[in-house]
Specification:
Elements lengths: L4 E6 L3 H18 L2 E6 L21 E5 L2 H6 L10 H9 L2 E5 L8 H8 L4 E5 L10 H5 L4 H11 L6 E6 L5 H6 L2 H14 L4 E6 L2 H11 L3 E2 L10 H14 L4 E5 L4 H9 L3 E4 L4
Parallel strand pairs: 1-2, 1-5, 2-3, 4-5, 6-7, 6-9, 7-8, 9-10
Length: about 280
Amino acid sequence: MKKPTIFLVPQGGLANRMRSILSAYQLAREIGSRLEVVWFKDKGLNAGFHDLFLPVKAEGFHLRDACGLDFLRLQLPKGRNLHLTRLVQKGRFDVCLYETCTPVAGTPEELKAQLQGRQVYWATCYAHQAYPADMAARFFRPLPAIEKKVEQFSAQLGPVSMGVHIRRTDNAQAIEHSPIRLFFDRIDSFLAHQPEGCIFLATDDQDTKKAMRQRYGQQLVCAPQPASRKTLSGVVDGLVDMLTLARCGQILGSWYSSFSELAAQIGGVPLEIVKKES
């Protein structure tokens, strides 16, 4: 008899994929299932897992970058494949969950009951199950070349640093609820108490970089090139930003963005989400 297995196809950007893997692995352990992760390159993230990270070693866990047959059997059903993979998945799996915009309803315990003992297909960008914070650093170890870039950035931070993640572009929630003026207020307060402090900025918006440079000058460290999910180099730059944030003494993060959350977990550092009062 086949061991119950969850076939996870993580969706979205880098941080969303990372948290969905961690959450699904914790859930799989609690219900006695294996977790098989199949990582697709797509417009949401044009990089393979092994372009970024070392192999993960964990009991009951296997992760691979998608191969030819995976595109016929396990790719998320969508217009480009005429939704034909849905027919294959419905015939092969006991449970199929497609979470691209909306998470499944119900409590974590109800979800466990639905998946336990079954063969599951799960495409998601969400985290349904809490997991140990130190799991992120154990699972996601960057390739040596990426680690070297992180070391180079981190060397510029000095002994007292604040990491700042300002999410923009397509994240309407972050734009609305985490305006730049609130980041200015918190950074100004930090520098008033730590005049020699350094600010590391991670953002996907060049106008935000310009505004921060004008305000903080030489005390600001950030990547000069625009962030991008469309190229491997752009995704690598995003990972370098995340891992550099993880080395700061504290992090200010944007509302409704998992990027700073993952950075704080990897570094084991305090995280404050900057948000307007309701």
